[in-house]
Amino acid sequence: MTTDEKLNDPAFFATNEHYALFDHLRQHDPVRWTESPDGRGYWSVFRHADIKHILNEPALFSSERGGVMPVIDDAMGAIALEAMGVGENVLTIDPPRHGEIRKVMAAPFLPKALADGEARTKTLIGEIFDQLPAHGEIDLVSELAVQIPMAVICDILKLPREDWAALLGWGKMAIGGTDPEYQQGSAAETVSGGFRQLYEYSLQRSSERRGCPFSDPLTALVNATVNAQPLTPSQIAHNGVQLMLAGFETTRNAFSGGVLALLQHPDQMALLRADPKGLRLAVEEIVRWSDPVISLMRIATADTVIGQQSVRAGDRVLLWFPSANRDADVFEKPYTFDVTRHPNLHLGFGAGPHFCLGGSLAKIEIRLAMEALMERYDGIEIIGEVSRVQSSFVGGLKHLPVKLIPHAGGRRKAIAS
Ligand code: HEM
User: Fold this and answer.
1) How many domains does the chain have?
2) Which of 86, 97, 153, 250 has the most ligand 1 atoms within 8 A of CB, as the residue to mutate?
3) Domain annotation covers residue 411
4) What single DSSP character describes residue 293?
5) In the prediction, which pLDDT does 417 show?
6) What is the position in ligand 1's atom list of the atom closest to the CA of 63?
7) Interstrand relation of 316-320 and 229-230 (parallel, antiparallel or unpaired)
8) Could you give the CA distance from residue 227 to residue 224 in angstroms, rounded to a whole number?
9) Does 367 map to a domain?
């Protein structure tokens, strides 16, 4: 396979071989013109400094002109703008309008609200652990990593437990539609079907809230006015979808990727077992290491320069986050998983105006879930094949079959891998 074919192939990112390719390209071709199946091509950007620059320059690199999903083939291109609600969903609106929409739904994700809600988050996570089978043999992805953020975001959005299964199915289609295991029809049909069903659901749930006194973000979107205008039903529904998907499709990958990393680095697990306070710092390394977001797109709005490379107005630019997060210009020993790494300037949550709205929530969830895992279990053994989702957009573990060994009589041992 040529380099361009690899970058264009979602299956390549399930192999973990992308890290070695990115190392090479950061050194030798850091802003690379990449031919794509739709014949339009795009710039691939690999260096931390260049990616950070682009994220901080939304006037030069738009999220609104083409959305942020890496769309490089015609079938996906035909559905992507509408499916994601580009121009309506906060993720795909450029400043200054972006800030006005973001403010409407930000309240539950601000530090004070998160601190007030931490006990509730801990209870929700505890309930998921309580439901695990006593024999301890589980797929850690589907039975823990997926359930935890689902419970938390549905609690924040006031969505009922009985909707989780449907939401999860649509989320897999919308975000993981390039993976054959999740496909219903072609990749583009799957992605579009997932987004459409999430949109219908969000539209229905939000319209029920009109005039309600609730303080959740869906109700806030329904009751909001921006520049003296209410939001349209479509704007409300697309932002609802964004909160749902961002709430459960990324954190699951960070948590499951973090567990796998700790199993592969028992010395780091031992450090955290000895001093669980270290988890506050460790969550940053877990996000850097697990790289839930693989690539995001921007469109250049004017002729400009990235690093040494000139790019033209209208060019597509793809930002490769796992590459930024292993850049030796920024991270000492980038391939060492070090839960005490500080500072940790990873770009896992992005940068600039679109910096992840739920980043602090995600870190709380990961910390509390890791704490619960270590408190409840002495040992975790991998008992089957570990696999990754085939996606170059949002990726991570698809299956992590493990046996959890409960810890006996208040005693703690190092976790065995
Ligand atoms: C480990 C988990 C997570 C990761 C790695 C992550 C990553 C990201 C990244 C990279 C962006 C920037 C996108 C861009 O620049 O185009 C983003 C934006 C966003 N994230 Fe997260 N996210 C996570 C969890 C969450 C959670 C739990 C929520 C809760 C609802 C959330 C809500 C959002 C929203 C609403 C945006 C759009 C912000 C804006 O455009 O202003 N994320 N996220």
Assistant:
1) 1
2) 250
3) no
4) B
5) 37
6) 16
7) unpaired
8) 10
9) yes
**What is the pTM assigned to this prediction?**
0.96
Ligand 1 pocket, CB under 6 A: 55, 63, 68, 90-91, 102, 153, 242-243, 246-247, 250-251, 254, 287, 292-293, 296, 348-350, 354, 356-359, 361-362
Could you tell me if 83 and 195 are in contact, meaning their C-beta atoms sit under 8 angstroms apart?
yes
CA distance 16 to 290: 11
Rounded mean pLDDT of 313-325?
A: 98
| Sheet (strand 401-406) strand order | 137-139, 401-406, 377-382
Task: Report if residue 7 sits inside a domain.
Answer: yes
Q: Write the single-letter amino acid at 162.
A: E
Q: Please give the number of the atom of ligand 1 that sits closest to the Cα of 255.
A: 1
Structure-token pair, residue 14: 């399930």
Q: What is the pLDDT of residues 126-145, one digit of tens each?
A: 999 999 999 999 999 999 99
Report how far ligand 1's centroid is from the alpha carbon of 128 (Å). Answer: 23
- What CATH number does the domain containing 238 carry? 1.10.630.10
Q: Is 159 helix (H, G, I), strand (E, B) or coil?
A: coil
User: Beta partners for 397?
Assistant: 388
* Contact of 379 with 413, CB cutoff 8 Å: yes
Task: Note the pLDDT tens digit of each residue in 3-50.
Answer: 999 999 999 999 999 999 999 999 999 999 999 999 999 999 999 999
Question: Amino acid identity, residue 193?
Answer: G
Q: Given this model, what pLDDT does residue 409 score?
A: 60
Neighbour-count burial for 191-219, b at 16+ CB within 10 Å, e otherwise: bbbbbbbbbebbbebbeebeeeeeebbbb
Helices (H), 94-163: 97-105, 111-130, 140, 147-157
Looking at the CA of residue 365, tell me the nearest atom of ligand 1. Answer: 27
Q: Which structural domain range is residue 123 located in?
A: 3-406
Q: Where are the beta strands (DSSP E) in 140-254?
A: 225-226, 229-230
Considering only CA atoms, which residue is closest to atom 6 of ligand 1?
349
Q: Is the pLDDT of residue 408 over 90?
A: no
Rounded Cα–Cα distance for residues 86 and 353 (Å)? 16
Write out the two tokens for 352. Answer: 């600039």
Ligand 1 pocket test target in 93, 356, 360, 393 with most atoms within 8 Å of CB: 356
Distance CA 177, CA 189 (A): 8
Query: Is 414 contained in some domain?
Result: no
Per-residue model confidence as pLDDT tens digits over 158-194:
999 999 999 999 999 999 999 999 999 999 999 999 9
User: How close is the Cα of 146 to the center of ligand 1, in Å?
Assistant: 16
Beta bridge partners of 45: 31, 319
